[in-house]
Amino acid sequence: ERALQGCLVRLEEQNRQLAESQSQEGSTARKEREVMLRLKEVVDKQRDELRAQAHEIICKSRDTEALQEQLHRFMAMNEELRHKVAVVQAQLKSALEKKSDLEAAMLQTQREMSRRSRATSESQQPKPSLEEAASPMEEPQHQGSDVGSSPAHCCFSKEELQQILQERNELKTNLFLVQEELAYYQRELLNEKRVPSFFLDAMKSNIKRQRKKIRAKMLGTTEESASSGDEEGSWLPARGAGCADPQPPESNIRSL
Question: Which residues form the RH2 domain (predicted)?
Fold first, then answer.
């Protein structure tokens, strides 16, 4: 009986120890599960953050590409506006020169008329007393007839002078446009590394030949014989209707 009681006590002690160990193992497993859940939440959160950052990087790269395209477009517009401003400045300059030339021509005409009137009044001899009374009334008529009958005065009319000045200003504008076009194509061709050097030389010779034609037309002289360099650039297409004439027509500037 005592042996049975001792065995029962030992069994109860072992049962208690097993229960305690089982409870400890259950708490450890719960802690491990909690830790795993927390780690999973952290990993999921970091994965979401990485996806959001990748999407933001893609959006920013697209915005950067759009800004670069817009920058290139603005640069092209700026270059075009600079060219237009240069053309407008050339037209304004030619208009101012035309105005100054017209004013100078008007002053010269007035001076010539006054000089001729003085010369006419000085060249007239004193007449008899009967004609002296009528001479002050007839003097303006004589002056008008002398000025109107003068061959030098009738050489060019006001409309012809205006036409000559307009023609000269147009030729100046065409020359300036050719120079601007030459500078523009020089910049474009120098930036392009694949363009051969002989093409640049041919382009320059062609532009020089066109400038010589415009200058000859402005001065009203005959164009000089084309050199070998001009003949090499003759295969290029002519740019501008005002610069493509092989021989300048008869100009009013030459007659002036």
Answer: 153-230
